[in-house]
Amino acid sequence: MTPESSILVSGAQPILQILISIATQEISLAWGVKGELKKLQTTLTTIQAVLQDAENRQVEKEAVKDWLKRLKRVAYDADDVLDEFKYEALRRKIETQIQMKGKVRNFFSRSNPFAFRLKMAHKLKDINEVLDGIKNDANGFNLRVEPANSTAMMNKEVRQTFSLIDDSEVVGRVDDKSKLLDMLVNTSNDQIISVIPIVGMGGIGKTTLAQLIFNDQLIVNNFDLRMWVCVSEEIEVKRLLKEIIESAGAKCDASNLDVIARNLQEKLIRKRFLLVLDDVWIVDHFVEKWDTLITPLRSGGVGSKVIVTTRSTEVAGIVASNDTYHDLGILPEKECWSLFSRRAFSNGGPLETPNLVEIGRRITKKCGGVPLAVKVLGSLMHSKKEHEWSSMEEEEVWNLLKDRNRGIMPILKLSYDHLPSHLKHCFAYCSVFPKDYTFDKRRLIQLWMAEGFLQQPKGSKQMEDVGNEYFNILLWNSFFQDVEKDEYEDIILTCKMHDLVHDLAQFVGKVDYSNMEAINVEDIFDEVRGLSLISFHDRKMEFPEEALKKTKKLRTLIFSSSSLVSNEMLMNFQSLRVLGLSKCSIYNLPSSIRKLKHLRYLDLSYNPIRVLPDSITSLYNLQTSKLNNCSHLEELPKEMRKMVSLRHIELHWKDDLYTQMPIEMGRLTNLQTLTKFYVGKDVGRSIKQLKCLNLRGELTIRRLENVTSGIEEAREANLRGKPDILFFNIKVEVGLSK
């Protein structure tokens, strides 16, 4: 199955799960449309049951792939319709609570419940008709209900490795080898068995390094027994124990686990051994399976060692002795060129001319220090004539590799295949950003949350905690690298993505997500759901309004230095969940912003905006509002208390014109980030408004001169009872009485 096909299923699956959940719930405004909602829920459940079979069949049937595309399209449309129900319910609840007065509701206005129900009934009926056709087509394809992972796992080719290696083919890794040999041979301890993981991304050379060590004469001389087993994608304890016995030179025909384990114990007793477990993945019940696997190995002699190669730092953390593991980094540029030139020019390859050397060095640089990519590309260029090299260089590295049945693509894609569907979506979404982009972890989690990728938390866990878990899983599986942490709190702040991993993200997400210069927007897919428009060399881009009219279903739209944001532009993208308008020279935000009722994330940072329109408070679903370095902003909207879904309000700048916060900010009980709070004199703006807010992170409190009864108000604000606030900054203004 191609990665493009894979994202169709991983894209449809979480959307269907969310839709079924929402459609099943009692919705207060569903009177008159409950029949359509019930039908929607039933149809979606039926379709979801055959998704696994559709995934397996789309490889050979183009019609099934088209069926999946149609399903995904209508699922997004249904999500928008159900979100409108939620929005309307929330709007009515807020207006009732705040008891808004002076408004006469016209029968045909947007506030009229009968008109709303009629409109939504028509939308649901249209969606159900489309879904009926999709369900009927599924019957025509004879799609079956299958257990999860059954056929997929049966059809998947298992990667195998062995201990043999041609030393002459290996370049670099001298220091890595030396360090590991020292850990294996010279470490003095009385442990019977020590486990040393080698961790790194796919294709980085973990297996090659393990092979070098396994065959080194120092290892041969220091261990009584050497064994090599490729674990690959499933830890089946019985199979692995048998293979360890076979690698030790014996045979075991038993089927009983206890007999197999005892056979291995007898083989290893009092022998100092080295065992390599190559390509270990995190799987369900990993700790239990690992304990079962390692137990019979403890019969070996003192000083026995196990090397585990893995892409997962989570695996390493579980199996490592003394929390020690070897993190294998990229190959230096000099060694990469040596490896490439050896593959490309030797044994009948093209003549090593200055021109080809120059092109070859540029190609090598694109490999980002991943030896497997260097090898594959060097081998590809070996068969090309000099006049073909230039045209080959112009292709993306990934395009040179993706059609091969060997090489870096299947190695990297294995990591992607192992992700659950919701994490596949989170990973593919990263391709909205360009290569070498520095990801702010907190921002990335907020974007995932806005897009609806995060599963509902249980208990006291917050949505951000779920996002943090997702991020860590991707990090543990080598999808992120170059982590930077806060020097005081040891919290991850930023990270990057290796170029080849980013290529994979673009490859699996190319239908849904894209980043490009505005001048190239004509090339965009009609079905794109996430887009960032990039402006290089600090030049302002004109908003390509005409070119983007075909992308009305966008859910993420991020600009870089756009010079135009109009009412027409906003009206064109009413499915938006994310709108990034940082550094867009915005002086006035159009009042039509209120039409973006699905919006969860709005970034207006670094704009000379002075006043936000009152209509922005109609964004009842908004979760994140970024107003960093909007130093001309004079006040926040008066009715901000209506925006009850807000979780993060970021107000970072040096100088500001604020005098007080909007009234009753304490109503925003979901709020976790409020970087600044300006104390007002009246009750609705006092420091007591912080009482009900479970804030996290940084908080600066200003205008303390407005506190009338300091100790009492501070106690009622319960600042001491907010343990997740990491940093307080109390600004005392001139004029505060002592």
The gist of it:
The protein is α/β, with parallel strands linked by helices. The protein has 25 helices and 19 strands.
Detailed description of the structure:
By secondary structure, the protein is α/β, with parallel strands linked by helices. It folds into five domains: 153 residues; 161 residues, Rossmann fold (3-Layer(aba) Sandwich); 78 residues; 84 residues, Orthogonal Bundle (Arc Repressor Mutant, subunit A); 228 residues, Leucine-rich repeat, LRR (right-handed beta-alpha superhelix) (Alpha-Beta Horseshoe). 41% of the residues lie in helices and 12% in strands. It is built from 25 helices and 19 strands. Strands 9-10-11-12-13-14-15-16 form an eight-stranded parallel β-sheet, with helices on one face. Strand 11, helix 24 and strand 12 form a beta-alpha-beta unit. Helix 20 crosses helix 23. The N terminus and C terminus are likely disordered.
Write out key terms for the chains shown.
single chain, 738 residues, alpha/beta, Rossmann fold, 5 domains, 8-stranded parallel β-sheet, 41% helix, globular, disordered N terminus
